[in-house]
Amino acid sequence: MPAVPEPVEGSFILFTLSFTCPVEGSLLYSFMIKFLFSFPQWLRVLFSLVYLAIVAFLSLMPADEVPQIELFTGFDKLLHCCMYFGLTVLACWTFHSEEKRIRILYIVLFSAAFGLMMEVSQLEMHAGRAFEWTDELSNAVGAMLGAGGYVWIAGIFRRRQGDD
Question: What are 42-47's contacts with CB under 8 Å, separation 24+?
Fold first, then answer.
């Protein structure tokens, strides 16, 4: 096991991140990847459906109930991207997309279509929310990044299985 360097004054955050974000090849990293791929199918489906319901709920909340958090310009778009990143990763994980890559394309298309459906629903519900193409673009970008992230993680898992 490599020696842990002594933290330099003022580097507490970097020191902490080195333990919470393990690097590829570390024992903790291998454990995390194996753990994620060991969940039974019914639990994967449950996680995905709950997450999908949360995304739908947050997307369709009336405007006066949505917390107005604007840390920087475009923060809303970052949230859209992150929500659909998570949705796509969970869907890929649920449907074992590492086994058949075409599933990844279908999942990205589903995620983008679901985002479009949420945007249209916001427009039709007349609850103070509006359809925005930039939101849909953020949803699609998040879905594509999520698929790429999943392919990367699944590739590491496959390599780890080959090492065992």
Answer: 44/90, 44/93, 44/94, 45/94, 47/90, 47/94
Q: pTM (2 decimals)?
A: 0.75
- Contact between 63 and 122 under an 8 Å Cβ cutoff? The reply is no
Distance separating alpha carbons of residues 96 and 45, to the nearest angstrom? 11
72 vs 4: CA distance, rounded Å: 36
How do residues 17-36 score in pLDDT, each as one tens digit? 344 445 555 666 667 777 77
- Among left, alpha and beta (phi > 0; psi -120 to 50; other), residue 62 is beta
